[in-house]
Write a structure and sequence with these properties.
3 strands, 0% helix
Length: 57
């Protein structure tokens, strides 16, 4: 779960389609439990998904 307004995303990948209208998911460490996992692009504020220069997982 992401609780803070600032998070670091290591890479992106394709997954299930989500409410953001695409299938892009980002790999990050959660703020609440400090565990690694994927979050849908719909909860990440970017100008495009995936952002230019970010590696695919």
């Amino acid at each position: 779960m992401l609780e803070t307004p600032w998070s670091v995303f290591n890479c992106w990948g394709h997954g299930d389609r989500h409410s953001g209208g695409n299938d892009i998911w980002y790999w990050t460490m959660g703020d609440l439990f400090a565990r690694w996992g994927n979050v849908p692009a719909s909860v990440v504020f970017t100008s495009q998904d995936p952002p230019a220069g970010m590696d695919q997982c």
